[in-house]
Amino acid sequence: MTGGTIRVLIADDQMMVRQGFTVLLNAEPGIEVVGQAVDGADAVAKVADLSPDVVLMDIRMPGTGGIEATRVLTTAAGSTVKVLVLTTFDLDEYVYEALRAGASGFLLKDASADELAEAVRVVARGDALLAPGLTKRLIAEFSRLSATPRSPLKDRVGALTERETEVLTLVAQGLSNAEIATCLVVAEQTVKTHVSRILVKLGLRDRTQAAVFAFDTGLVRPAGH
């Protein structure tokens, strides 16, 4: 972020969506739209040129779609850009693929100006995927579409301490740091430290990816499974 301002790139094949989001975000303090992209390939190129902090990425676009573009952006060496995917339906199966590809969260296209701005700020901070309750529902639904736990990933859980594994499980259940602190009877700062160490040990970008990891490895299973 430059001078505390969150730099945003908007990638959507619909001009009205791009322009509408640009107007809304530029009216928000501390947020600046630095560019627009018409598809996934254009988004990748614009990120290289403009170095935004957050990309608002439409999932479905002609040519290179949002999922592939997200994968390219989040796996690039030294990449710090966060991707917030845009979708029309909150349980769109493509959302889950985008999360697995490295997206930090998702936003409905009919979100209000306040919801849009808050989502950008949340993702820029690397915090939870929007509201904790939404995280829990989304990730649980996501896990139902997953195959059996992935062994290579499951092996990485062994790098965590018992307490870190406990914290990871609670993150995947959608709890905030404050709620985890209350649950474990520890200071909130202690939870933040644990979360930071979990991300480093597992090579993950943020809490959202930590939650996806927990479900993908079978560490946490949705209710009834």
TrEMBL record:
Residue ranges constituting the HTH luxR-type domain according to the UniProt record: 153-218
Q: Which residues form a coiled coil?
A: none
Q: Which residues carry this modification: 4-aspartylphosphate?
A: D58
* A Pfam family per the record: Response_reg
Q: Which InterPro entries match?
A: CheY-like_superfamily, NreC/VraR/RcsB-like_REC, Sig_transdc_resp-reg_C-effctor, Sig_transdc_resp-reg_receiver, Tscrpt_reg_LuxR_C, WalR-like
Entry-linked SUPFAM superfamilies: C-terminal effector domain of the bipartite response regulators, CheY-like
Q: Which residues form the Response regulatory domain?
A: 7-124
UniProt keyword terms in alphabetical order: DNA-binding, Phosphoprotein, Transcription, Transcription regulation
Listed name of the protein = Response regulator
Native source organism of the sequence:
Streptomyces flavochromogenes
